[in-house]
Known about the structure:
The structure is a single chain. It is built from 10 helices and 18 strands. With 457 residues, it is α/β, with parallel strands linked by helices. It is elongated, with a radius of gyration of 24 Å.
Amino acid sequence: MKLFRTLTCLLMLSFLSLPARAADPAAKPSAETKEQRDARMKWWREARFGMFIHWGVYSVPAGFYRDKPVGGIGEWIMNRGRIPVAEYAEFTKQFNPVKFDADEWVRIAKEAGMKYIVITSKHHDGFAMFHSKTSPYNIHDATPFNRDPLAELAAACKKQGIRLGFYYSQAQDWHHPGGSAIRGHWDKAQDGDMMKYIETVAAPQVREILTNYGDDTPAVLWWDTPAGMSPAMAEKLMAVVRECKPNVITNNRLCRGFPGDTETPEQHIPPTGYKDRDWETCMTMNGTWGFKRDDHNWKSTETLIRNLADIASKGGNYLLNVGPTSEGLIPQPSVERLAEVGRWMKVNAEAIYGTTASPFPALPWGRVTKKITPESTTLYLHVFTWPGNGKLLLPELKNQVIKAWLLADKKPLTAQNNAEGVVIDVPKTAPDPIDTVVVLQVSGEVSLLKTDRPAGK
Length: 457
């Protein structure tokens, strides 16, 4: 297998040296059928909940440069502080995350109910968080740590049954010459030809992360910020993807004209999701992606759980971020909140995993997810605002009720069809003040009395 990969990669290097062909930039050698795409996307669509990890050498300054705070998000400190290339590279000497424990990180994600992890293999500062043979500017060769955390995470994920994906900043690179010329440089060391950068740094490193960590890793390749990318540059990268990992799930941030598999709304939840596209909201737990020691603006557990339910009700995934420290620790406020989300998921995961979007318009008391069988539809009613009169109305629903119950204890509830929809008799007090799930099974596919209003919030 290693010999085969070596030969194929040598062939690809020869291919990449050829001039780019004038062709449809998004074209593939053979068209993927809907059935093939559905099979490829199946695990991702069922997962609904994943962990984003932004970790890099920027965790050393942790938002401060020359003892002064730098505004903006932590991983952008090199850019925001206009730190010279050589000076920023000095932080690598202090980057020694000896407290990093891959098994513990994966355990935290798994206990939270997350089904996959996406970690930054290289962010915009150009520093590779893996043992790259392409550039010595990487955690194995340029730091005292001298280890490959991606390899350790891949092993831990395989052991614990979690899928692992890699983020890669393909265009913005503030360290290597030619990276992201369109963004403007503040150091002559950054000047250079962007196509040469794609050919000599980005494409070879993408090949490394696609081939060095096992047949099933990465499960996701998460591009970011296509600054200055041309279709010819993007095709250089996609040729590597198609040759090395054609089944990997990619997002829409490579280049215009390369839609990828998923939309990626950032820091917000689309009002009605995306009708014909898979999508994933990525979001921070505080105000930054990479670690900043002075950012304590943490979202509440209530917000995180309700965000998860809201996103699932619109047919999307929730990629929730943690920003580990330079020591290799996930911040304690993140750990605590993820544990609390995990306790809710242990009771209510059935209402998240494998569900599809709500068929209902905006509901004043919460959200709905659903699962469909040939004979019936199971509706999961995520109740944020508990009805004071003990009557939960699911408006406009015409389907005949089969049964209803509380998901937490399987206690049966009385549910009846009436002129307004379906009314369910619920306990006086909400079993869970954040999100109590009431399950309603009805016959057939959902049919509403009125269908001229959009579903979702």
